[in-house]
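Issue: copy button drops trailing tokens. Both records pasted manually instead:
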Amino acid sequence: MLNHTRLKFADTNDDAVRLLAFGVDALDDWLESQPQDVQAWVKAQGFKAAEGTICTVPADGGAIAMALAGLGDAQSRARGRFPMASIAAKLPAGTYQLVSDHAADDLEEHALGWLLSQYAFEAYRAQPPHGARLVCPDGVNKDRIEAIAAGETLTRDLINTPASDMGPNDLEGAARTLAKIHGAAITVVTGDDLLAENFPMIHAVGRASATPPRLIDMTWGDEGPTLALVGKGVCFDTGGLNIKPAASMGLMKKDMGGAATVLGLAHMIMALGLKLKLRVLIPAVENSIDGSAYRPQDILTSRKGLTVEINNTDAEGRLVLADALALADETPPDLMICMATLTGAARVAVGPDISPFFTGDAAFADALRAGARQARDPVWELPFHDPYEPLIEPGIADLDNAPKGGFAGTITAALFLRRFVSNSARFAHFDVYGWQPVAAAGRPKGGVGMGARAILAALPKAMNL
């Protein structure tokens, strides 16, 4: 799933066509510096540098002398991102060299947007690639952008794959492949061994499936600060005995989006050789129904020893994450990050395009916001609101997995997870969607990474790398 050769830059700029990108406000000044025939041609084509528009300027003999790309006005640029992604799809086949005096962050956005525009999910149907290729722009770190694109590709491919081919065993296989590529160590606890190894809630959620539940544990790196990434790997979620209606179950192949995101982020970290010690934990399960399924009103005892009353079997993600978080917390990392497609309430709050996050660490939050701006990967901080703690305490057990009332569902889920992190001083939780509902520049409809690029950009400052 990392072999997308189309998501790489062209190897050479020999005979590459110059590609000039303009905002509306810069076009007139450039035109004034051009020969009369170029000015006449561009004006005749009606090119105004509107966002996503192109104009190819011919040379003698009919070849393309140069290509112009429109970036729109300031308002359109502020409203969108990856404008070069829509440009790449419209240009004629060939190799292009971006000529620009744009700021470094803008050039990185253009370069990454171009690569992401080449993505296509081809596991079940071949799709023709775009014919236009880009030479990595001067001043842009080619290896870094290609590593980010490859990590995003891995995330998208994993989410897009249906549960028939992406069950807990397949997710394990993807993690093993990634570990082999980067020389990481990996161990997996499966089936009833979860009980023997004290992961009772992972076992309870996944035991009704024909494919046994498991906990994937991957480690990499031998120097630097420690980073733990914990990703929700619910490969399909029927809702359990509190079964989902059909409309809600239709996209549940993406309920392992947290696991897919941390694996994509792990690839970026390892491919770039960041000087840190990485641990990736993924509880991989299917929330299915049979005679052994866990039930509403059951009380489960977690790895940490906290008891949990089950008031809805469709609030299973926080249960499997709790055991994984408790394991990570036993050898506290310098920073622990949890990523999960956890609550519909998060989508109601911020929609499908923004990654809400929770943290008690102001320095990490500041680094993350700066990283999000740099990486064009929007995030928004929500609070660990302590006055809501009583909502997750049912009285009959330590915790309630599905508080009644329906208010603040994203926050109560985050508070639930925080109960299992008592030794690690720095903890962040992301409630991501993992799905692009409508195609946009660089983001076709389907699985998508959220938050990973922002985290990657934040790590050097957040962890003193």
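Record 2 (pasted manually too):
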Amino acid sequence: MTWVLKDFQELDTAELYTILAERVNVFIVEQECPYPEIDGKDDEAFHLFYKKDGQIAAYARLFRAGDYYEEASIGRILVKEDYRKQTLGRELVDKAISVLRDEFNETKIKIQAQNYLREFYSSFGFEPVTKVYLEDDIPHVDMILEL
């Protein structure tokens, strides 16, 4: 049971395979949303994940300012179904924010949140900066956190 932060080159083949499989399971299969999950940005990201019982239970992709958006960003946030409703999602977002703030000295974080999670992200201080829009037929809203 440990949090791991690696850049793309540090990921071993098994970790990368598991990360991509979990992202496909959550974002494409569970949400019934066919879209290009492998978007060519993983090699620029930092990969934050929580390993438990030999599995990746939670995951997020982190970018420094300028690598994805003008601001730093957190994306592909997921908790594997077996580990949901155990506060792991809250721990994941807390850890992602602290990494970007404390290790990378970022001052602003942008997320593309699914609208139904707006209250969850607001509880961390994220504020909406766009109206709700459809991204792959799912209502989203862009949100910013000033650190």
